[in-house]
């Protein structure tokens, strides 16, 4: 084998790989496969692998058994949000890039509140994918369960913000890396360490991710992990409305905690009144511990086997509702992971839901999902101002 002069400094050699250090990235050592009579790795390749190495190291240290860990499973992507509200995608003059994906939003939301969380999912082996892994690490979310696909891109979503702050989506997934996560790539050790395992329905749309999703839920259930489900209906991603309904309901009876919106109640019950308690109770299966219905600015409703009620929301000026429901989920799971007995204590549950409502309200005051997720201090301060 011949060594060709290049910007990389050759540092070590084994039977099947060469280690290089690039002078512009002196803190990273990247391993490349031996290339017979070929050029050394390019600066672009080095930067790509350097980002991956940085994103996959560090994490939060070892997870201990006492940690009330919440593991979130599913998609992580890049949201492109218009800088001007009330315009169509074609009319928008510019877009703000923001990390997103409902399960990842929840993981970051929990960590930002001071909880312990991890994310399991797949992104592209591209700069967006490494950026997302790095964002998780920067937000103290364990990312050891992330995988990188060399043959598919990280998912993108363009989000239209109407004048009322509500959203319309255009997705780029043909297929995206999150759809290609395989059961063999799951970190089962991380899953079985969880106190709560949280997921949505988007990972049920196509194989092989569907099988990976089912296997992950089964593994968590088998060791007594609480299962949290947010269907997060995105009809444009499903082949048909009926396939969406069947897919969402296919794992309904396994969950311990379910969060749904008014729109999702109407969809799942095929047009019945989402404000009728009797309609909502139809969705309450025998093993369910807590059913939560979010009502946007109006707050939420809660249903257990023994009681039900409503907790009012905080009134704010909505800029972007992206991630509001995920912030709410993060707020309630953060508290349930520490004290699951809240489900049996109505006063305690109401206080926890007031906290979760505030998490959601604060998130809509900024653009993007992850950038807008609040800290525990911000939530407490907002609640104190409301009381005052």
Automatic annotation (TrEMBL):
Reaction catalyzed: D-fructose + ATP = D-fructose 6-phosphate + ADP + H(+)
UniProt keyword Lipid biosynthesis, yes or no: no
Domain Carbohydrate kinase PfkB intervals: 69-375
Known EC number: 2.7.1.4
PROSITE patterns in UniProt: PFKB_KINASES_1, PFKB_KINASES_2
Biological processes per GO annotation: fructose metabolic process
Domain of life: Eukaryota
Protein name: fructokinase
Annotated source species: Saponaria officinalis
């Amino acid at each position: 084998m011949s060594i060709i002069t290049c910007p990389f400094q050759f540092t070590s050699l084994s039977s099947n790989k060469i280690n290089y250090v690039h002078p512009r990235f002196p803190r990273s050592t990247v391993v490349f496969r031996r290339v017979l009579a070929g050029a050394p790795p390019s600066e672009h390749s080095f930067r790509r692998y350097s980002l991956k190495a940085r994103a996959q190291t560090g994490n939060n240290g070892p997870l201990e058994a006492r940690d009330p860990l919440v593991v979130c499973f599913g998609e992580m992507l890049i949201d492109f949000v218009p800088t001007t509200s009330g315009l169509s995608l074609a009319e928008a003059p510019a877009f703000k890039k923001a990390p997103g994906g409902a399960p990842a939003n929840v993981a970051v939301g929990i960590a930002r509140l001071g909880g312990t969380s991890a994310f399991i999912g797949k992104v592209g082996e591209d700069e967006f994918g490494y950026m997302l892994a790095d964002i998780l690490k920067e937000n103290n979310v364990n990312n050891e369960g992330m995988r990188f696909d060399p043959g598919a891109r990280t998912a993108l979503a363009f989000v239209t913000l109407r004048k009322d702050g509500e959203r319309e989506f255009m997705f780029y997934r043909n297929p995206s890396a999150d759809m290609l996560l395989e059961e063999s790539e799951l970190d089962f050790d991380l899953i079985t360490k969880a106190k709560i395992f949280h997921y949505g329905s988007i990972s049920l749309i196509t194989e092989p991710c569907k099988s990976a999703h089912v296997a992950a839920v089964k593994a968590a259930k088998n060791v007594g992990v609480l299962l949290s489900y947010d269907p997060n209906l995105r009809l444009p991603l499903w082949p048909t409305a009926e396939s969406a309904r069947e897919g969402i309901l296919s794992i309904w009876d396994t969950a311990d905690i379910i969060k749904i919106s008014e729109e999702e109640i109407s969809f799942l019950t095929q047009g019945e009144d989402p404000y009728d308690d009797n309609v909502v109770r139809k969705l309450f299966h025998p093993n369910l511990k807590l059913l939560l219905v979010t009502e946007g600015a109006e707050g939420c409703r809660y249903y257990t086997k023994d009681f039900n009620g409503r907790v009012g929301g905080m009134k704010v000026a909505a800029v972007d509702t992206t991630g509001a429901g995920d912030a709410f989920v993060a707020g309630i799971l953060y508290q349930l992971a520490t004290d699951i007995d809240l489900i049996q204590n109505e006063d305690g549950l109401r206080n926890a839901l007031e906290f979760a409502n505030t998490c959601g309200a604060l998130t809509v005051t900024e653009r993007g999902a992850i950038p807008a997720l609040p800290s525990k201090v911000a939530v407490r301060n907002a609640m104190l101002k409301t009381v005052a």
